[in-house]
Design brief:
The structure is a single chain. The protein has 1208 residues and is an alpha+beta fold. Helices cover 47% and strands 20% of the residues. The strands form 8 sheets. The chain has an 8-stranded mixed β-barrel, surrounded by 5 helices. The protein has a 6-stranded antiparallel β-sheet with strand order 22-21-20-25-24-23, sandwiched between helices. A hairpin with a 5-residue loop joins strand 11 and strand 12 (463-465). The longest helix has 65 residues, at 363-427. The protein starts with a helix and ends with a helix.
């Protein structure tokens, strides 16, 4: 059976090659006739031609425009029927002409929604069907757009024959010259032309009034579809591929159309802009990718047929399904186009018959039959579900398109009214409240969705109508309204009306806010900003007009893009998770100054779907049970015979299977030393063929490597002579395999002794043992000795050095800045750097020395048998230079360097552990002194390390025992001398009364991470103290607290606990959070998020020691910084170093421009204070003005200060 399948596949490949070759030599010439002039409307056909899809299918295609170079136009139908074209583009007219007796076939609908709309100038409203029916409508009589308009009137109770259709050109000039009141045309074409002329339009879409006709549709003649169906199929396949490419590459195709294709009748000032606009809108017509291109719904064609029949456009009745080239796969007719399914069923029948004919268990065939049945059932079930999903998605898209269009119209209309108000004010900039009210009254009467109108000259609301109920808005200065100011700035910047919101109104309630800038001409003839005009729009009314509040809507809807920010904006209608729900349909709502994104999902599903699937499953289950009963009966009849055959076969194969699984072979040797029997498995392990089952002892020994084979021969002789048992591990002659040889002597009844043995392949065990040993002693990444093997070699080397009276050097190597490489390029690239570093280190030492990977990015090196101390120094210098060279990561050169500590035996330590610790301490000193160097170990390092360790332990105990306290240092206003804030500084007084300087314990706290606990404790105590101090003060004193960058790097809950403390404290005490420049340079989104949250709570953010770090000035605008602290190193140089004075003046000038407060710390002389006061430094802090003191002393100070102020 396998060979048959292979032959079929080979034949299929040959036929495919022959088929492709035939098309390669002769391409079929095909003409496609368009229904209009060249433009993006037909982008997919151009893409199929330009991308070679037609050529791939063996087609030479010519695409012809509706207009000829001489200005004449052609009828696509006439071109098709006459044979001058093989394919054409149409719409509803295809069905009409089919009803007139023309033999036409629909190949593929491209536009699932028609772009046709009724278009009028802004001065001619399209309020409803009845009002629109009274207008003069310009339309092309033979065009399907007129059919859609007539269908719209018919479906909404208006006699279409009474509508006044006039035959005028479908141009804006027709409307401007009052030759018609509205045009029946494509909405995108009208909007593009109106935009060029600066006109505002009203739109009415038939699709929003129950007319769901297909738009552009590819069709051909029935004669061609019957005579050459494969040609039609190839053209369809290439065309749909072209449309997919065009829809995925809209800008590319639009640009190429604009640059290469001519137009002869209707022209645009900017043809490229028009094509790009059509490209932007086309998704709302194709519904791609939610609906597959070319998707056909027979029910929709039937409904179109019924409407056209009511319009008396169908002269000769016909079945709509008969005009479809490729029958649609729909839930009511699941067996259409299912040849593959019939093939699967046939295969199942063949397999079932084979199972019955063979008279054997045929379990594989049973399983295959059941698997095929399951495959068929699942295929049908998936088909039903997919068709239901497509229909549901299509219905949702159609409804959502209507809602989107209505929303755009409502917003556009409201903004147009608002623009009119702006124009009125621009013409009357000195208007009175009475004049404004009179004009606004008329506007609100025309557009009831506008709640009120407000005008704000110089961005302060001065005029409002109606005034009652809106008094609270008068005098509102938009400059200080953070909620509304961004939208106002956007309107002013782009000089166009914008929509913000929904927003909370000052006078109560919520609404969309439309805003438009008002600009007037000054005496010099230049435009200047007069102010802004605003109008809240009734949100519920807009939603109601769009149909979103219809209780029968049956859609879940959500909208995001608050303030016109599009898909990146905030969700303001519905649930935000709807946008991430599977199967959701989204569209863009565009309007002046921004856009929204609307999403929809059907609330209910087809109730009949589960029942249909259950019925399908029951039917296939019944068929499966019947087949299994039939096979079971056949199987039982043969079960006894099969059972005995199986027992015999298993018994015969049992030993062979055991030998194979255990990799064990048997052998026998007689008392003469002749091996006379070798099992098949034994022969295979020894590399013998089936003919070599007997051999002499000497030949048997030669199969194993020497000298092991000679030892084995002697052992076998002892087995024969002395009756011993042997168990040996030997290598094969080629040394590729390890074999275990076992032999036992056996004596028969006649006293003859022979040897029965076994051979077992233990190669994998030996390799596994070696691998385990290697893994236990070597690093998996660098293949260097690991810490265990290194310690063993170090101990051996120290013992050997002691015997030979030599020196050993231990080098502890740590890669500098390796974490940066890991963070920026990933651990994989970091591992490559480690391997390269290991190779470089090995190249710098002797083969007798040892390099190991100690941990992470640390390596240790043992230098053996040294005569003096100069050798390790030279090697360390070489290592530093080698490791300082660039490493190549992803084609980029990166650098890390190395810090190396050196400890000597026996001078620095007597035991391995102590030698490693000392080398590590020496390396740590290199790190502290700037990195990328080397250092010998000294006793002073040990002393410092012990001191740091004792101080760290004491600090942990101090935190637990609450020994830490704080002092407050006043921060003084420069000009008034008042204490407005104080800085909380950590202090540590031990239980014995002694004080530990912050210079000693703060760095240790920073390094070990205890600083987060220290900062929290100090802030908590300081807040409690300031609450008491501020209790009787009219102007509370602010508390300035320091925060370490480590707080933002911790992975525990320290940051959350600190934020909770800040939130609660800020309610009673003004808080200033001092951060370092190093925190800002970390480029952390977490840092930015926390700082912005603090700023929103009204907490000031101050950069401590400003000017001493590496931050960019851009951080002053990126982060919510409100204060700067000039470092004491600059202040101390006042009057001494002009450069420092220049830096101070620069910081003060910059801060003034950015509206940032400045504090100068470290003020210790009157000269410094006078200098800072003259240059308008806001605040000062230093010993001259007040030393850090405890709470009692600070309280007395501020009380005394208050008395002096009151005494004045």
């Amino acid at each position: 059976m396998r060979y048959t399948a292979t032959w079929i596949m080979s034949a299929f490949k040959v036929l495919t090659l022959l088929f492709c070759s035939s098309h390669a030599f002769s391409a079929d010439k095909v003409v496609l006739q368009l229904k209009w002039e060249h433009e993006f409307q037909f982008a997919g056909y151009y893409a199929a031609l330009w991308q070679g899809y037609y050529e791939r299918e063996g087609l030479a295609v010519e695409i012809r425009s509706w207009a000829r170079p001489d200005g004449q136009v052609v009828s696509p139908l006439e071109e098709l029927i006459s044979g001058r074209a093989q394919f054409a583009i149409g719409g509803t007219d295809i069905m009409v002409n089919k009803g007139r007796g023309y033999d036409l076939v629909v190949v593929a609908p491209i536009f699932q929604r028609s772009p046709v709309a009724l278009v009028s100038l802004d001065s001619t409203p399209l309020q409803n069907i009845e009002q629109t029916a009274q207008l003069r409508l310009a339309a092309v009589e033979v065009d399907d757009s007129m059919l859609e308009a007539r269908a719209m009137f018919l479906m909404n109770g208006v006699d279409a024959n009474r509508v006044n259709f006039v035959h005028q050109p479908l141009t804006m000039e027709t409307l401007l010259d009052d030759k018609a009141d509205a045009l029946v045309t494509y909405s995108v074409s009208a909007q593009s032309r109106a935009s060029e002329l600066g006109l505002a339009l009203n739109l009415m879409h038939p699709t929003e009034y129950g007319v769901q006709f297909y738009g552009d549709t590819l069709y051909t003649s029935g004669e061609l579809a019957r005579r050459q169906p494969e040609l039609v199929a190839r053209f369809r396949r290439a065309t749909l591929d072209g449309w997919r490419y065009a829809l995925d590459n809209k800008v590319e195709i639009a640009n190429r159309i604009s640059a290469t294709l001519p137009r002869y009748l209707y022209r645009y000032e900017d043809f490229k802009a028009y094509n790009l606009a059509f490209a932007h809108s086309i998704d709302q017509y194709t519904f791609y990718p939610a609906v597959e291109l070319g998707h056909v719904n027979i029910k929709r064609w039937q409904r179109t047929y019924d409407i056209l029949e009511r319009l008396e456009e169908i002269e000769q009745p016909f079945d709509p399904a008969s005009m479809l080239f490729k029958k649609p796969i729909i839930s009511q007719e699941p067996w259409h186009d299912m040849s593959w399914l019939l093939g699967v069923v046939a295969m199942a029948a063949i397999l079932l018959g084979a199972a019955l004919v063979r008279g054997k268990p045929a379990y594989g065939l049973q399983i295959a039959v059941l698997a095929l049945l399951l495959l068929v059932e699942q295929g049908l079930e998936t088909w039903i579900q997919r068709d239901n999903d497509v229909q549901q998605s299509l219905r949702t898209l159609e409804t959502l398109s209507t809602i989107r269009s209505r929303l755009e119209q409502a917003i556009s209309r409201n903004l147009t009214e608002l623009t009119g108000v702006a124009a009125f004010i621009a013409a009357n900039p000195d208007l009175t409240q009475e004049a404004f009210s009179q004009y606004a009254k008329n506007v609100l009467k025309v557009d009831p969705q506008l709640i009120n109108l407000a005008a704000a000259p110089d961005l302060v609301i001065k005029y409002i109508y109606p005034l009652p109920g809106n008094e609270a808005a008068l005098g509102l200065n938009y400059r200080f309204n953070a909620q509304q100011l961004p939208a106002i700035r956007r309107a002013i910047e782009f000089n166009e009306p914008v929509v913000a919101g929904p927003l909370d109104l000052v006078q109560g309630g919520t609404a969309l806010i439309g805003r438009a800038p008002v600009r007037i001409l000054n005496q010099q003839g230049e435009h200047r900003l007069w102010g802004i005009v605003s109008a809240p729009v009734d949100v519920a009314a807009v939603y109601r007009e769009a149909g979103m509040l219809d209780p029968t809507l049956d859609l879940k809807i959500a909208i995001r893009g608050k303030d016109g920010m599009g898909k990146d904006g905030e969700v303001f209608y519905g649930r935000g998770e709807l946008f991430d729900t599977a199967g959701v349909v989204t569209q863009t709502i565009s309007f002046s100054g921004g856009s929204w994104q609307i999403a929809a999902l059907a609330e209910t599903h087809d109730e009949t779907l589960p029942a249909r699937i259950v019925a399908l499953r029951l039917a296939f289950t019944l068929v499966g049970v019947l087949i299994m009963l039939l096979l079971f009966t056949q199987t039982q009849r043969m079960s006894s015979r099969r059972h005995y055959q199986k027992v015999v076969r298993q018994t015969a194969e049992f030993l062979r299977e055991v030998e194979t699984v255990a990799k064990v072979g048997g052998w026998r040797m007689d008392n003469k030393g002749q091996v006379y029997e070798l099992s098949e498995q034994a022969q295979m392990m020894l590399g013998l063929n089936s003919m070599e089952s007997e051999m002499s002892l000497e030949s048997f020994v030669d199969l194993f490597s020497r000298p092991q084979g000679i030892d084995m021969a002697q052992a076998l002789r002892e087995v024969m002579q002395q009756g011993k048992e042997i168990d040996l591990e030997l290598q094969s002659q080629n040394r590729k395999a390890w074999l275990r040889l076992i032999a036992d002597p056996v004596t028969d009844d006649q006293g003859n002794r022979e040897v029965i043995g076994a051979i077992q392949d233990i190669t994998e065990k030996k390799l596994a043992d070696a691998k385990i040993e290697h893994q236990a002693n070597y690093d998996g990444l660098t293949n260097l000795p690991n810490r265990v093997l290194f310690n063993d070699r170090l101990q051996t080397a120290m013992a050997q050095a002691q015997r030979n009276n030599k020196i050993i050097a231990l080098l502890f190597v740590d890669l500098d800045n390796f974490k940066t490489i890991n963070d920026n390029y990933g651990h994989r690239e970091g591992d490559l750097v480690l391997c390269e570093a290991a190779n470089r280190i090995q190249q710098c030492i002797r083969a007798s020395d040892t390099v190991s990977r100690h941990s992470g990015d640390e390596f240790t090196v043992i230098l053996n048998d040294l005569e003096d101390e100069t050798v390790p120094a030279k090697i360390a210098e070489t290592l530093v230079a080698t490791l300082s060279k660039a490493f190549t990561v992803r084609g980029v050169e990166v650098y890390c360097g190395a810090s190396i500590g050196i400890a000597l035996y026996p001078a620095d330590a007597k035991v391995p552990e102590e030698l490693i610790i000392n080398a590590d301490q020496a390396m740590y000193e290199v790190k502290k002194s700037g990195r990328n160097g080397w250092h010998f170990y000294t006793e002073e390092m040990q002393h410092k390390s012990e001191q740091r360790h004792h101080l760290y332990n004491a600090l942990v105990t101090a935190i637990l025992d609450d020994e830490l306290t704080f002092h407050l240092q006043p921060i003084i206003t420069t000009h008034s001398g008042k204490t407005t804030a104080c800085e909380a500084l950590a202090r540590w007084q031990r239980a014995d009364g002694s004080w530990i300087s912050p210079v000693e314990f703060v760095p240790i706290a920073e390094e070990t991470g205890l600083i987060n606990q220290v900062d929290y404790m100090i802030m908590e105590k300081a807040v409690a103290a300031l609450q008491g101090i501020n209790a009787d003060r009219a102007e509370p004193i602010a508390l300035s607290v320091n925060v370490s960058p480590r707080l933002f790097q911790t992975k525990d809950q320290a940051l959350d606990r600190w934020l909770e403390l800040v939130r609660s404290a800020s309610a009673t005490v003004p808080i200033i959070v001092e951060i370092t420049e190093r925190l800002l340079t970390a480029e952390s989104t977490r840092t930015e998020s926390v700082l912005r949250e603090l700023a929103q709570l009204g907490i000031d953010i101050s950069i401590d020691d400003f000017g001493t770090g590496y931050s960019s000035l851009s951080y002053l605008t990126r982060f919510p910084v409100s204060k700067l602290k000039i470092d004491r190193s600059f202040v101390s140089c006042i009057g001494v170093n002009p450069t420092s004075e220049t830096l101070i003046e620069t910081i003060l000038a910059m801060a003034e421009k950015l509206d940032i407060q400045v504090v100068a710390e470290g003020v210790e002389t009157e000269e410094q204070l006078t200098y800072l006061r003259k240059r308008n430094c806001h605040h000062v802090q230093g010993y001259l003005l007040g030393r850090p003191c405890d709470v009692a002393e600070f309280t007395a100070r501020v009380v005394q200060e208050n008395r002096l102020i009151l005494g004045r």
